[in-house]
Amino acid sequence: MVLSIYHVRLVQFFCDDAYISFRYAQNLAEGNGPVYNPGERVEGYTNFLWVVLLSAGLRAGASAEAASLVLGIVLLAITMILTWHTARRSLNGDPAWSCLPLFFLATLGPVVLWSVCGLETILFTAAGVAAFLTYHRSGGTTRGLFLAGTLYGVAYLSRPEGAIFGAVAGIHLILSSLVRKEPLGRLLRRGLALAAGFFIVFAPHLLWRISYYGDWLPNTFYVKTGSEERALLGLRYLRSFLEAYPAVSPLALLGLLLGISRPAYRDGRSIIAHSGLLLAVMFAYTGSVGGDYMALFRFHAPLLPFLALLMAVGLHGVTSMLSGLLRGNRIVPVVAAIVMACGLGAWFMEVSVASAAGEVRSNVVVPLKGMKINGIRWAAAGKVLGERLWPDAVLATSAAGAIPYYSGLPTIDQSGLNDRHTAKVEWDPWIPGKPGHAKTAKKSYILGRRPDVIIAHPKIWTQESIHRTDSPWPGYLLRTIPISGLQDEKGEDLWLYFWLRRDHSARARELGINPPEHIRTSF
Prior knowledge:
By secondary structure, this protein is of the alpha/beta class. The protein is built from 21 helices and seven strands. The strands form two sheets. The chain has a five-stranded mixed sheet, with helices on one face. Strand 1, helix 18 and strand 2 (411-413) form a beta-alpha-beta unit. Helix 4 (64-90) packs parallel to helix 7 (121-137), helix 13 runs antiparallel to helix 14 and helix 15 packs antiparallel against helix 16.
């Protein structure tokens, strides 16, 4: 518990993408429906259940940040409890060894970070582990499998990958039935029960999505599948994860091999094999979609309870074999296991410490420090814009989270996540090597919509760090606003630079929005 608290304090921040969900939740709480801009029905999120829960928190009087943080911490605790119960079924009911996966989860950055950053990752993780455990506790009864399928549906409402978790459970059900040579009729009844539980959740949501948004898939799907380098990026993402945590894969693979081959794990063999199957399928899936760019491997966080379980089985198996070699001596193997576990935990924690310090170790994922800085600066910029601009001013920006959320202004999302035209109709290439950043709105499209302010990717600088700029936006003027109370690491004041529509220059001057005097420009 102490280790988890320390780890949370080290990595906690609110990711800019979380503010997209916050904005949908806010509009839902205010009666505008789950929309990014009131009156525009675009599904720019993939976490329906998380948005609904945040909206409930907002209705209860909490801020979106507070609601997400409380939910994240509670769900992290629930995930650990569920993982402990799953481990007990795999490690012959030994309560001490069943705590080892929890220790690994407390030291692995992906689980801890993505529980307390405002996103839905931990909700999906908790739902996935709950469904997995329910499946294995069902005893093969149709009632139990129906409940497991329903929980896989809940996982799907948290993240679309919940459908993959459920499909893997179906594959496991078929394979285990074939191994046991069960009658085909019994397999069909059990399979239909599992599928029915899932579809009783999945089908109503799909019908609602089609009727409300007019699409079969979220708008984000069309943006994030726009890169032709997805497979290559996905392979680099997996390799980067394995390089960051080099002890994870060999120890987990050892646990999988021991778990399915040694008689000592007969009772937990089904869980161990299912975990290995799920990991193989999900690693293939995250690779096929190109992975992610965010710090500490967000896409792999939901897989860590299963990796931690296999690692615990691996260490337990090594200890058991060592005890046999020492003719029943248990003290030396247990002490060796404790030393190894502590060493692994320290090794895992070091990755989080380095990322929080801004150390670049991979060209695939960014360090946590940079994401924290952006989150703080963009939130401050959004607050300033909300205070200075008129209430119906329209923004255009590729930073679609904190700036629109805090400004409260109508926003054109230049990255296309919340803009159907850019996602599906026409776009310009943006950053092909960065997952989720393959598309950006065409300049002609943005100019045609005539936003009042164009921010694009936020430019937040000190007066000394920029000396000249040229206008890439015909009909717009360069303007700047000081961000009160925000400074860089040297203590210099920071300013937000943006482009203001020319016909608003007099109105903006009355609001204290002026040209940057320290930049030589004719615009």
